[in-house]
## 1
Amino acid sequence: MQFSEQWLRQFVNPAMDSDALGHALTMAGLEVEEQKSVAAVFTGVVIGQILSAEKHPDADRLQICRVDVGSGELLQIVCGASNARAGLKAPCALVGAALPGFNIKQAKVRGVESFGMMCSSKELGLTEESTGLLELPADAQVGMDIRQFLALDDQLFTLKLTPNRSDCLSIIGIARDVAAITGAALSLPAINPVAVTSTNKKSIAIEQTSDCLRYAGRLIEGVNASAQTPDWMLRRLERSGIRSISTIVDITNYVLLELGQPLHAFDAAKLQGDIRVRATKPAESIVLLNQQEVKLDADMLVIADDSGAIALAGIMGGAFTAVSDATQSIFLESAFFTPDAIAGKARRLGLSTDSSYRFERGVDYGNTLQALEYATQLVQQLCGGQAGPVSEVTGALPVRKAVTLRHSKLQSILGIAISESQVAQYFSQLGFFCENKAGNFVVTPPSYRFDISIEEDLVEEIARLHGYDHIPAIAPEAALTMLSASENQLKPAWLRHIAVAHGYQEIVNYSFVEEQTEREILGNTKPIKLKNPIASNMSVMRSSLWVGLLDTLVYNLNRKQARVRLFEIGSAYTLDADAYQEKMLISGLAYGAASPEQWAEPTRELDFFDIKTVTDVLGGLRVEYKAAQHPALHPGQSAQIMLNNKAIGWLGKLHPKWQQHYQLPLATFVFELDATALLSRQLQTFTEVAKFPPIRRDLAVIVDENIEVKAVIDTMLSAHIPVVNDVRLFDVYRGKGIAENKKSLAFLVLMQDTQKTLTDVEADEAMSKLLDSIKKNHGAELR
């Protein structure tokens, strides 16, 4: 919201300068985003009138002007402006004047003395470009200081308002707040109904009563639409960032800025029948004032007559019924549309108008008729015309409910003591009706303050008026105690240290991915869709971290990185049984050679077991692997990772289809684990270190090709032979001497007793039991 300080001070004039006023506004919650002067600093410029202009004898484009500057003596000034002529009034810089960037001195121009300079708006620093002298109206007083005449000692304030303070989207609204903040007197103009001199009127019907709660309008006939907008109004509009269009349109914009009520004027001669406020009809369209033809959606609200839609309610009028210089009668509209009816509609059409900006934030429904009367006064004052009676339809207007503020609650939140009488005074300054009932203030806000609905809103108002800088910053006092750290729960940093120790680099990706990728690569048929995605390729929440890892891999390969190790710890999101689930995962990716290139070891390709070593360590050697298939993984090189018989992740080689999709020359391996499960562990217990040496025995058996090694080892360990400490595979053989569809497995068996040295008999007995267990469960034969 940009406005002129001089315009504001017409209604409230606190005893403070511009800088102090800006600081007071900011400290009261109306942040001054920018404050600047209307014009650059210059002196010695007055209004001059050219009495005669003769051609310079030695220059075709110069004229010798005789200029009256009110001093009683005419000045001779050489001027090269194309519009310099006798009778023209324009700014005249006297000798000794200081203009932006240069000073005026007596000079000779092509041999002719010149005692000053006639000025353009550019030379005064008012505009960046100009085509000639700044022409002033005929009634401008000769000799008057131009800064005074053009009110150039003015400041422009731009407020950065929060959405709840739309009451300050008007000069009157800001004036109310300034009066409340500073205690200065508020002087609002009295707006009385105009004399009705015509009986003609338009009937109004509201069909969409939930969206339009008040609609008023009147006919004004016999107007002179080609009348010129006065300079004072043009100046205020321009300093508020609005360009002049025509007198009638300028009046509606002026009332919008001063009172905050959007208005619209229709050319009454182009209206067919009466006015209806209704929803759009199927396939209905309208050509707006900016000549943009828009197709109207079913949820939009229009102003219509018998011919169809003539305006997009609360946003912009239609081109067909727009006023022009030929307009002789107008229908002036003032309405209250609910914020929900307007919000988002303008942006959907690629529009942003002053009306929609205010309606979607809320306007004062108690100001509808007052704004209509004020605009009528200005139309009659500037364009003439006879005003007809006001036609009005009103629905169930919003009710400003009383809000109770407890004095004890106020002091508890602010932490300072404010007397009850002072609180009542603050509410009075704000224009709130207030009753003090034994320390409970029952406050009814006015119609223009619809942001007041709960007790905390009133606390904020008191804090604003009391002054945030008058509320001391008291540091809180609290006892700090160290929380006990459970030994059963590890920190995520533990996982990071393991991954980094294995040569992996951590990355951080967005939690948003492309829906197609989520469905196809990860097999997620119910991705969580975002209502407002930041990009088309980030439309759903990720259910796995693999997509981000693959995108990062491609990014690195495109930059000639031949060996890549990546990991990420982050959240993944799923929808299970209509309930949202969030899970912290650690995912990794390995690509390229198994080890960095070096002279002492030949280069070899990465394989499944290289990456399995990482998941083993991450799982604390507690995890197990179960052959399973995943849509992102190679069918023959993928495994589900189990912990305590519960699936906690995946490990495998990227599926050839996706390797081709990402154009990866070499095989890529990935893993993903539930980080929460990994970080939970059992406490370690002490076991006595044996004093007696261990015994190693080797056991070679022949089993069917489809028997898993892990199943054989698990069977031997589950036999629970006390002296058997460990069983490990050290050889697998297929070939000569071994039948087809068979394989030879060789295991080392470590045995030890903490109380004595094992004998050969005891060791043989243990080995016999092991062999019996795998014979029974897997059909193993001793080799």
## 2
Amino acid sequence: MVIRYIEYAIALSTMIQEPEKQPNSSPEKRFVQRSLAAVARWSPLGGTSFAFASFLLKQEWVTAIALFPVTAVSGVWAAYSKNFTERLSEIYGERGKKDADGFVENMDQANQFLTEKLNWRSLGFTEKYLKCQEWDCHEDNVVGMREEDDLPVNSPLLREVFVPLELSGDSLARGYEFRDRPENRAEICEQLQIWQLLERVREDNRLRQIAIRAWGGYGKTTLLKHLAYIYSTQEYCKGSYRKYQVPTLIPFLLFLGGCWKELTKENPPNLPELLTDYHIGRLTKIKPLDAVPNNWALNILRRGDALVMFDGFDEVPPAERAKVSTWLSDEMRQYPESIFILTSRPTAYTEDYTARKPTASFWIQDFNPEQRKQFVEQWYICQERYARGGRNTPDVEAKAKDKAEKLLAQIEARPELKDLAGNALLLNMMARFHRDNKQGAELPQRKVELYQDICELQLGRRASARGIFLVLNSISQRQEVLQFVALEMMCGRAKTIDTNDFAPEYFEVEGFKQISEADLLEYIEMALQRIDPDVSAKEFLKQAEDISELLVKKDGHIYAVYQFAHLSFQEFLAACELFRMRQQGEKLAFECMGISAWQDVILFYAAMINPTKLIQEALNQKHIDLADRIYKQTEKRLNLSIAEQKALEGVKQSVTNSRYQKLEDYLENQQWYEADQETYKLMIRAVGKEDGQWFSTKDLKEFPCDELLAIDKLWVEISKKHGFEFGFSVQKQIYVECGGILDFSYPSSETWEKFCDRTAWKERAKWVDYPDQFFKNNFMSVKGHLPVLGGVVWVGEEWGELVGVIFSRIETCEV
């Protein structure tokens, strides 16, 4: 356009003028001038040069000279216009491609939408239900903490990071249940995956009712979500799952923390009603479902096609657990062909599940090195891929692998981190902390420090890096508000949970996991009055939920209900508040020592202080196990001062003596069965496991020598006073005399048979029943008859394998 106007201006300023302004021109001349003007104005491709050459040939000099400037400018325009149009063609060509791609993409999306719409309408009710159950559990959001804002998702998908968990047997491992089929015991007691148990359901009906126990963060909920997802998507018959010949089932995943109120009504619903009204009603919030067909859930349960999973028995308020356990037990018995799985923390299940327990019980094992490596590598490739818009190229994989290797190397090099990394939640937290820390600093050495760093990360560091303004001036002030809330929840001083039916003292001291929005805002307001009265409680709650994500809102209630992202965060923050309160906090800790729900709070608190006084108080109150756990936790600390070390040495003997006092009393009173049971409990706890779990070869190879010495000394010295010869060292000598070799190898069949005959564990080649016949007088007089670790490790060749290990450990400990 610019060149066009230049040419027009030149034409006006030269002899090429409009004919009307040159009256002496001939008609022919005026025609030529009009033509030249038109060419000059509108020729885009150098047409003026053609006219100029023509006039030169005709020797029309005046006209040719007049046209020369126009021809020159026109030549420039020709070059310009050519490149201009070519470039314009390129640009709009690319735009056309993009527009075409966008058009196709929109058409694909529209087609996909229409296809999904048509497919959804064509699905039957069961298929629609399975899709909703799939969507309800497909994210791995156990920690409740989001990644950086540049990631397109807050949490990875469960299938991207899930690591198969190992289970070990509990009640099925007890020998008296296998008198007729001892060979089955070894199969059940080995470390199993849940799919192997489901595969065996057809042969063993006891596996139709399974209880799975583990402490917080070991992946109980994740395991059930994994089952629900795989069954909802029908992947159990595809890929790597094809090797398991599991039954076809319809999954139902219910969270007891959200539905216990339904089960404790005066007229509670039965299981089909709970699934139809409560569970499906909750899933309709994801996508509306059609009306449930008549007796749909009932028919599935009766046919044995249901996999009903109840997560979190420990999340039921303590006062309601007996009632809930009765409901669960009754409903399980109503449908013996279906499969039921219940998860719980150990103490709640052991102490408060008062009804008939499920017929099979298992524990989730610590992550082993292979599981740890698999999780970290999967987690990092997922995050690195998300950070790059889903790109999964070799360079992305290389970066993920490099970061994963650095984290794993740090864990492997530090024993204190290896202990923590056995817990799935803590390993997840380590990975998040490691990825967020741009300086590559070392991970915290202790559990309490890891929680503190994660809280600081969520309460300020990440928000500051993103330029987000948070209320209150400092991280410590924000944490102090949450500490106050956490302790109030542990003390159970809330007024409402779902309804106003309960008085404030209803949950007194026992604590609870969930809190109504009204109570939560009230406690936040109380804390803010002390810190900064001008801050809005509602604004603080919104940021705690949306930005720090340490508090999360739960669905399925009459009105808004909140809880901490994980119970362990509530316990940690409550312990921080005890620490802040100083003497008042110590007094409250002393008062709550005997409450099972407070055990982890006390342990967190002990890690923040010099715990000598706390240990002594636990001993005074006869909470021996708690005192021992605090002592062992403190003993591993690397940063103890000289004064703390001396104080700890001062209580060491008291803890040791108290731990073995019960065993000593049983032995003195010749309560041999009780002494044998107590020996098992002492030894299983010494390796960091709980009553009902199983020893591994590694546990016995590394068994603490001082523990083994103390236990054996009591057995040998006290039994001798009563005219018996019992003890591990006595059994070790018999084992050697039978041909056993103390090199941690398994005994030969011949050695094992001789040993069992010599100790009267067998009579006429048959196992002596434990405990029915085992403690009869004719057996008790046999040298080395006891101990047998409470009968849990009784019957079969597997105990023979462990005997070879434990006697070798006795030798290396010089017992």
